[in-house]
Amino acid sequence: MVRILVVEDEVELAAAVARGLREEGFDVDVTHDGKDGYERARSATYDAIVLDILLPGMNGFQVCRSLREAGVWTPILMLTARDALEDRLTGLRAGADDYLVKPFALSELVARIEAILRRSSGGKKRQLKVADLVYDLDTLDITRAGQPLKLN
Question: What backbone torsions phi and psi does residue 68 show, to the nearest 5 degrees?
Answer without folding.
Answer: -65, -40
